Amino acid sequence: MIVELEKELAPEAKIDLLLKLKAARCDCRDLPATDCERIGILGKPGCSEEEIRRIPGVARVVRVKTPYKLVGREMHPQDTCVRVGDVVVGGENISVVAGPCAVESLEQALTIAREVQRAGACLFRGGAFKPRTSPYSFQGLEEQGLRILAEVRETLGIGVVTEMTSPSQADLMMKYIDVVQIGARNMQNFELLKCVGRMGKPVLLKRGLAGTIEEWLMSAEYILSEGNRQVILCERGIRTFEPYTRNTLDLSAIPVLKKLTHLPIVVDPSHATGMREKVSPMARSAVAAGADGLMIEVHHDPDHAMSDGAQSLYPQQFRQLMRDIYVIAPVVGKQLDFSHLERVRVIGRKRKNGGTRRRAGFMGRIGTFSHKACLQYFGEAAEAVPLPTFQSIFEAIKADGIDYGIVPLENSLSGSIHENYDLLRDYDLRIIGEVAIRITQNLLAKPGTELADIRRVLSHPQGIEQCRQFLSQHNWEIVSVSDTAGAAERVSRSEGNADAAIAGLITAEIYGLAVLAEGIETNPRNYTRFVVIAREPIEHRKAAKSSLILWAKNEPGALFSILQVFAEERINMIKLESRPIPGEPWRYMFYIDIEADLESEAMAGVRAALAEKSEYLKILGCY
Ligand code: PEP
Ligand code: MN
Questions:
Q1: Is the pTM of this model over 0.90?
Q2: Ligand 1: nearest atom to the Cα of 237
């Protein structure tokens, strides 16, 4: 049950209350606060519910309906992110664990680990204790396999995941491994579950061959009840009557689990299908269905693999799959970010040297799309700082009040955000990265509001622009405000039911609004590209793209001669937009994006040629 405490209870009163609960033989757990402080009681308390209700300081007692208490959303409504070093599984990320079924040799493990790491996998997997159907099949390299995994981690700096099949392996796992996997065959090995619960290392818990979702959650409950909250669930297919695939991948488990539990969910399409060519389609579907990540078997020489070669992807297939996931993820509001780990490490190192955590500014308030972009780019590597205007972000970086900023530069429906181009031109800051997020707009109003009640709609001008078609069907007054979350907040504070806001779904949650209409943007292919700005690049690394502003000379063929430089050097131009030069009627400047690192040594000639052929040139950043 959940015990809700009275608001503003003095700390001594809370201690007193806890002592009374303990005296009544209640197994108490701290729970994350919602709108009040809460204590969870597990199992059957040694006194009646009524007696608990009468303890001073108790506001309310709520029974938890599900048998899984710590795993369910009643006690813990917010999503859990599992941390493995710098890797975060859950939240806005898609995390991919990849590697061979079994560790076969140091050379094999390193070869595959290098491949999957280069393709964007954030953790390396490989079995050392293999639970095989036949006792005569390869059983794994055991401790030697674990030592190889530890060496892979030392050499490449990638966390390692392996299966533990017996509590007797606990010490070895503690010594060599970052994430302990509980295999499908052991989902209900309760001694093993209790053991990994006490070990405290992150656990990847696979679904049993014939495990129901409730049984699976109860297994996770065993681990959490021992004090270990770092559990990742892994759907790997269940036994059905269908023989065409090794198992049947239960993708519907993802939305079911998302509702029931706060734990992150990854999908293993390799063991689910058992066939190489079926792995990528199911992996793509899993991400589209809302999975937080994938576990994929990869082998450089699958024909000679000691186990599960037939379902292992070739490295080239894995690379292609990762590119596909990169495209799919933003559609469901997530991100597969190939350089996220490297970036988080660099920013983390800076923190260690400088002492304080880095700060990244975004415009508006918590819950805006800018805030989401900031979270997707930095994760927890930097603190997200809300600021009132775009210019205040540039000013704060210049004055060293914050380290980074994130500003929208263009939207796929409504075009460039000129104010930010102007600021990039005027301030001596650089673009150091970018992130694109899908924008979905919704009509939000106070609970109980009907469409017919609405008279006024508030939103940011971009939000209004993106929903023109929907708005044209209604005769509402349209009010522009500075950000979408601000619109939602104003509606939540308004009198009556005449106001509605256009904003993202997350703001509905933050401001307690109801969703009257979902996905009302005219075109669903609605993406905003945000750029990250700073005084200097995070670290010099190979850039794929450069953004620049230039003014062509006022003479025949001026723009043509500039474009000729790109053509002759075979540089792909991905954006060219003209815009009036402020204060110079009928003269135009150009925004240009190219697929090249204009600041590299090799591009010195191109830089010189561009400078020579234009009246003004500013490289906004290479990233
Ligand atoms: C594995 O991951 O190699 C494995 C044996 O998986 P499962 O337990 O899902 O069969
Ligand atoms: Mn396997």
A1: no
A2: 9
